[in-house]
Amino acid sequence: MIGRASIDRPETDHKRAKDEKAIMTTLLNAYIAANRFGFGPRPRELARIGDDARGWLKAQIQPENSPPAAFSALPETADSVLEMANTRRTGTKAYQATVERLSKAHAPAELKARIEVMTTSESPFRERLVQFWSNHFTVSGQEPKVLPLAGAYEREVIRPHVFGRFEKLLLAAIRHPAMLMYLDNQYSFGPNSPLGQVVPGFSERLAQEILMHHTLSPDGSYGQDDVHALAKMLTGWSHGGIGGRGPHDGHFRFRPTGHEPGAKSFLGKHYPESGVEEAERALAFLAGHHATARFISTKLVRHFVADDPPPAAVRAITRVFSDSGGDLAQVAAALVDLDIAWAVPLTKVKTPYELVVSTLRTMGHQGIEPHGLMRSLRELGQQAYRARTPAGWSDQAKDWMVPDALIRRIDWAREIASRAPRTLDPLALADIAIGPVASRATLDTVKQAPSVEVGIALVLASAEFQQR
Asked: Does this model's pTM top 0.90?
């Protein structure tokens, strides 16, 4: 006679397997939310995300009520601009000394605050979008005069607009003194303007980068005539800190006497003479252009899904971008709704910056030494606030996972492990950092490590931890 328990066992086993699969799916989705859309899970964060990973992300799509406390003591751009401008009038050596002093004071402090916010934030999706847009609208300390301003630029321009409209973000970025100084527009005066007759300095750099990297893309359908026309529209866009009549306040300032007079033709559209409004109208037109929507959407899908963006995903995000008039909150929600963004295995490789932030989120925030962070990022190949070109840092694995870079990452993992408390359990760390995606081979290697230090290093250097 077959007992009742024997009859029930197959059904019970099936239910248990089904429940276990559901639990693993929930954990995996929570991990993807924290790791791909954020900067990696903090202790107990996957449990806090629960079984609604997409809802957890969408709840973060809202403006900050107030700036994070870590930023409260940092200087505003205008103060630094005025200080540099005042010493410039006294001579080149004094100016260079001021730039160097402000760079040494501001850049490490800005980076410390920036990483503190990203490692402790309860809204890591917002922080990842801050990073994305800051990279898209790069200003780089490769130009020494920009380094003291780069952190403030991100706080003043990028953070307030990540869930606003792209048009407003574009305009805010181009008007900011850091962008104007980075791309040599503060002294760009029209050749036929009163100032241009006295101080020749017409520049096309800002116009070129707006078209190539901020809006239409390097493959956009524009010519050199369009670059030249947009550059003329941007003449006179400067800041109140370079002499002449006031106000001397260090903020954006339009100089009518430096603006190129006359009508312009740009991308087949006629722009009558209208001073500062010429470039404002041109930027609004570019923000609403379909090529801009497609370019931005391609970059977003590359960032959140795969180095080779799936065409269907790009089309979906482009449609939302265009239909919403560049509403970045709706675009962010559409990214979360992409089913392919939740696929495994995870193929995106963390940049050095992302690696540092995810390590600190996983191991806990125990006080950050600013100059140590600057050194770590420099050694890993992504020096803070110093992107090599206006295109920003690469978002593709081929540019980060070269042999020398891999060795540097392993060395850095060893260094971090050497400073970790010996009470830290490597397997517990692995559970937090890579638990839902950890292979049996990785866990066995960590378990068999000869010391706590080696075990921690193996977790941080693992392929699973290097990916998102």
From this structure: yes
